[in-house]
Amino acid sequence: MSLSSDNVPTALVKKGLYGVLRCDSKGITKLPEYCQMCNMTFEEPCGENATERMDSVARALEDVLSAALPQGCITVGVYEAAMSLNVDPDNVVLCLLATDEEEVEDVALQIHFTLIQAFCCENDINILRVNNMRRLAEILGELKPGGEPMDLHCVLVTNPKSSTWKDPALSKLNRFCRDSRVLDQWVPVINLPER
Questions:
Q1: pTM of the model
Q2: Using CA atoms, how far apart are residues 126 and 188, in angstroms rounded to an integer?
Q3: DSSP 3-state assignment of 71?
Q4: Which pLDDT tens digits describe the chain residue by residue (195 residues)?
Q5: 179 near 40, Cβ under 8 Å?
Q6: How far apart are CA 180 and CA 117, in angstroms?
Q7: d(CA 53, CA 2)
Q8: What distance in Å separates the CA atoms of residue 14 and residue 180, rounded to the nearest whole number?
């Protein structure tokens, strides 16, 4: 029996009869044995290494946002993000979806998130959920230039206009997102620690 990627969605990782398979635009690839035995996600506690790794990823996210802000490489707001994704999705390097505990049950916001996630997955844009809007506001600033509060529910990080972005912190986030997808966690959650 031969496997074909004709009827399989892009970038799908599936555990089944043939082991753990990754299906993407390059075809179907069987993942190594160590991926087949691993059921842990990055959110699950597993000692100091997982905590250190999550702290490291949170610091990398803060570094990326701090570096992108003065370069004008940040788009803030659900509507603004949707417009930017529609105009130039190839320029987006990272999408953040942020909520606080009281907003988790906001159906309209969750529908927006679902649509943005689907678009980002279709266009190979890394996505992270962020669980600390207050800290995100501290990093990005809370007000638009006109004094109006910003909608921090969706934040896009884009390439600078002059070139592509080569940043070790961004590389770390991209690697984290890729590793999460291998473990079938398509939108990993990052908790930005208070400072």
A1: 0.71
A2: 10
A3: helix
A4: 344 434 333 444 444 444 455 555 555 555 544 443 333 344 444 456 778 888 899 999 999 999 999 888 999 999 999 999 999 999 999 999 998 877 778 899 899 999 999 999 999 999 999 988 889 998 988 656 666 778 899 999 998 876 666 788 999 999 999 998 888 888 898 888 887
A5: no
A6: 15
A7: 39
A8: 14
Q: Which two tokens stand for residue 17?
A: 């009869």
Q: Is residue 85 classed as helix, strand or coil in its secondary structure?
A: helix
- Dig out the tokens for 146 from the structure: 């006109």
**Please, which residues bridge with residue 95 across strands?**
127, 156
- Helical residues (DSSP H) of 72-148, grouped into ranges: 78-87, 107-122, 133-140
- Strand positions, DSSP E, 99-180: 126-130, 154-158
Closest CA to 114 of 95, 92, 139, 93: 95
Rounded-to-integer distance, Cα 139 and Cα 132, Å: 11
**Tokens, residue 89:** 């999705």
Structure tokens given for 35: 């991926």
